Amino acid sequence: MTQSNREEPFRVTNASERAAVRQPVIALMTDFGLRDGFVGIMKGVIAGIVPHAQLIDISHDIAPQNVAAGAWLLSTAYRYFPAGSIFLCVVDPGVGSQRRAIALEAGDWFFVGPDNGLFSYVLAEQPVRQAVALENPAYRLPVVSTTFHGRDIFAPAAAHLARGVPLADFGTILEPHALQRLALNLPRREGGRIEASVIYIDHFGNLVTSIPLTLVPDLFTAPRVRLLVPQHNLTIERRQPFFAGEAGEDEPFVYSDSAGYVGIAIRNGNAAARLGMSVGEAVTLVIEES
Amino acid sequence: MTQSNREEPFRVTNASERAAVRQPVIALMTDFGLRDGFVGIMKGVIAGIVPHAQLIDISHDIAPQNVAAGAWLLSTAYRYFPAGSIFLCVVDPGVGSQRRAIALEAGDWFFVGPDNGLFSYVLAEQPVRQAVALENPAYRLPVVSTTFHGRDIFAPAAAHLARGVPLADFGTILEPHALQRLALNLPRREGGRIEASVIYIDHFGNLVTSIPLTLVPDLFTAPRVRLLVPQHNLTIERRQPFFAGEAGEDEPFVYSDSAGYVGIAIRNGNAAARLGMSVGEAVTLVIEES
Amino acid sequence: MTQSNREEPFRVTNASERAAVRQPVIALMTDFGLRDGFVGIMKGVIAGIVPHAQLIDISHDIAPQNVAAGAWLLSTAYRYFPAGSIFLCVVDPGVGSQRRAIALEAGDWFFVGPDNGLFSYVLAEQPVRQAVALENPAYRLPVVSTTFHGRDIFAPAAAHLARGVPLADFGTILEPHALQRLALNLPRREGGRIEASVIYIDHFGNLVTSIPLTLVPDLFTAPRVRLLVPQHNLTIERRQPFFAGEAGEDEPFVYSDSAGYVGIAIRNGNAAARLGMSVGEAVTLVIEES
After folding, report:
1. Closest Cβ–Cβ partner in C32, C51, C141 for B20
2. Residue (of B134, B75, B65, B67) closest to B106 by Cα position
3. Nearest to B10 among C45, C65, C99 (CB)
4. Are residues A113 and A240 in the same domain?
5. Within 10 Å of residue A278's Cβ, how many Cβ atoms?
6. Residue span of the structural domain in which B262 resides
7. Is residue C7 included in any domain, yes or no?
């Protein structure tokens, strides 16, 4: 009843529809915010190279320079984009330093950005078909600044990819194992017990844990489940498959978040604010196995 | 001099221009915010189904789960979109529960979203040509979550509509009177007196009342007008057709808001903050009829 | 090593690529915010007139009615857009008053908005090819409000321009010298000394000064440079071409901002917050000339 879509990505299967995909998709994710014009400038650069791309914003409000947060958010989104989509991702505290600029094809998609761990979940979840260092000056702006590679290197690379330039033309081929990866601390299940943490708080204040729903197929069928939040001396036993259920307006419950993880919510309320919980806080899920 | 555009929607009348409308418009309005990637994911789903749509954001900052605020904002926007535009609207506290998912053709436009009153103004203002329940699994994602129907049901429906799928293919035909509607509390004029309330505060701090300009064609020609704000013991008599007029920098005045309603503003200032007024506050307009 | 891109705009030079630019670009910049639907409404109007335009947001978070801030932000962005792009810019405290609505071709681009100084940098930097007053009712909405010319005048004008309507059809030709301009207070260099100010604080808290990098080609090669901030009794001597350099985590440094100006940053930190500096604050750059 409450399954994740993570393992079953959506596909356009009708061949004539697929043929109609003449408009390449470039999806953008950054920590630039929308106030300063940085994102618009990148799109202006893209429009000069590939005028007919469909430009889709995933988020530009990644916490500044928080590579891990960006990596996670990307993991919740990319599967829902059509095959061939190009993800232009810039959370880049090392801009201008020796960190590499890369592009890669993984699964059915392309990814462009700094080689700093931003693609860690993608690399863990998808087979890497090819990866390259972005070195070819033909696919950069004529002058490359030291502080805005989103504009000068990454946006042009994504746009030229969308035009059909092969990955290998951008620079040196990289071995997948040479790409930077973050330690993801994926939780493991030991019997019915899973040690995890809060990994994200969404716009509504729902708390998303690091426990993938694939690890708990019995979340809603086990006779009893307890989510322990030791720091707040809290135990949540109520489970609810959707928000508008029977829980009282102040009672937290466990639900299956649409990103594919176990979450904590309060009906019509902001769970993070009401419970005082924040990202990184430890939680333990205990499933009474039948 | 100061008329509303509400009654005279803009139309492309040139036939060759109309023929050129090969790029369907999908306009999105939600309470998802832009930080979490939810909106980008919906657009990714759409791009996989109808790659060449023009995707336009109306707002994603509706107050969380405030269906009435979403309904009102939609009413200020839809007339300005070309005939055939599809409005994908998700303010959906009841997601996953028994509330229906619907699509409808009303006036010259299509609307897709939850059947919870979000289309109340549209239903009051436009003839409903057809309405359906979104039931056909062919036009949903293969797996439907219990918490993100924007992604799994509404975005695919809007995209398939944009591809040309007829409304009737989506599910059971619904009678218009069976659709959920909010009580709109539209003000009435009794002589020169109108009891109303503040319905919206915009980004500039302008206070928009629930009094349609169509109810007060004499707003700027009557010898005297008083807008009473009893809770703040305030009477506003100055009328001004635009912001940069003769009012002093601290003096509130009545103006004709571009959404089609009587508003209260302060020149170069934030009226809501200066007057301490908020949404829901009662106001009375008294027009001295000549 | 650390040059501005400002003097060397990006161009698509390949002729076949240029021919492919069948999708006109309309770039939008306003102080409307994204909450109220104003921007979406303008895009809806555009889509009804020119369905296939590529609509790109530069920023909608210009400080309300701050024409100078809008003028500056536009100056950092327009060069990166393809030739022929149309900039639809609305920061318009004088809406509804006697201020003119204008469109102009300057350099390789078109600009549409109020004649209130919003195009001051563009006018200082680019040759004006033609400028007109937006007067022709055929290129406005049928009813023009007194408070939302973005919707009723500017968006239709930009869209009709994108359709190919010649500038001269919109109204009276204006002499370039008759257009409103702000006093830009561009700093001058006297020997190695430049008196300037903080002109912008970006999303990351980096402080951008009004000193163009073109004025200080020796910024990173001079034996010594001092940036004086008298109000905070601060002298910054460290120079660093990019953010991830050798400066300690609390040590401010001078860098070359991607907008083409001298900036002040703190590694992995918010310089404005840490130093307590704000827009308008005076700074003096002293370059020891070798």
Report:
1. C51
2. B75
3. C45
4. no
5. 11
6. 189-288
7. no
Residue B19's pLDDT is 33
Q: Do A204 and B64 touch (CB under 8 A)?
A: yes
Task: Round to whole Å and give the CA distance between C157 and C170.
Answer: 8
Instruction: Let me know if residue B198 belongs to a domain.
Output: yes
Residues C89 and C170 in one domain: yes
Task: Chain B: list its partners (3+ Cβ pairs within 8 Å).
Answer: A, C
- Residues B147 and B43 placed together within one structural domain of the fold: yes
Q: How far apart are CA A57 and CA A38, in angstroms?
A: 13
Q: What is the ipTM of this complex?
A: 0.90
A155 with A199, same domain? no
pLDDT averages per 10-residue partition of chain B, 290 residues: 37 37 88 96 98 97 93 97 98 88 98 98 97 98 93 98 97 97 93 95 94 95 96 94 79 93 91 94 92
CATH number of the domain at C281, please.
2.40.30.90
In a domain, C141, yes or no: yes
B131 and B212 both lie in a single domain: no
**Chain-wide mean pLDDT for chain A?**
90
A72 & A167 share domain: yes
| Enclosing H/E stretch for C122 | helix C120-125
Tell me which residue in B5, B25, B56 faces C143 most closely, judged by beta carbons: B5
Show which of A151, A178, A205 is a domain's final residue. A178
Which chain A positions have a beta carbon within 8 Å of C80's beta carbon? Answer: 41, 44-45, 48, 151
Q: Domain for residue A224, yes or no?
A: yes
CB B113 within 8 A of CB B89: yes
Q: How many structural domains is chain B composed of?
A: 2
Whether residues B263 and B223 share a domain: the answer is: yes
Is the per-residue pLDDT at A219 higher than 50? yes
Q: Chain A: list its partners (3+ Cβ pairs within 8 Å).
A: B, C
pLDDT in tens, B228-245: 999 999 999 999 988 877
Residue of chain C whose Cα is closest to the Cα of A140: C10
pLDDT given for residue B22 in this prediction: 67
Minimum distance, in Å, between the CA of residue A251 and any CA atom of chain C:
30
Amino acid at A68: A
Residue B59 is nearest to which of C36, C52, C141, comparing CB atoms?
C36
Residues in chain A with CB shorter than 8 Å from the CB of C27 are 40, 44
Beta bridge partners of C54: C25
Which of C203, C204, C279 to mutate to probe the A interface, most A CBs <10 Å?
A: C203
Asked if the model's pLDDT at residue C2 lies above 70, the reply is: no
Write the CB contacts of A33 (distance below 8 Å, at least 6 apart in sequence): A60, A61, C203
Q: How far is C242 from chain A (nearest CA, A)?
A: 5
Residue C56: which CATH number? 3.40.50.10790
pLDDT tens digits along C71-85: 999 999 999 999 999
**Pairwise CB contact (< 8 Å): A77 & B148:** no
Q: Which residues of B touch A20 (CB under 8 A)?
A: 51-52
Contacts of A60 in chain B (CB under 8 A): 34
CA proximity to C204, closest of A111, A182, A150: A150
Using a CB-CB cut-off of 8 Å, the residues of chain B touching C162 are none
Residues A208, A172 within the same domain = no
> At a CB cut-off of 8 Å and minimum separation 6, what does C289 contact?
C191, C192, C218, C222
Residues B29, C37: C-beta atoms closer than 8 Å: yes
Among A137, A153, A178, which residue terminates a domain?
A178
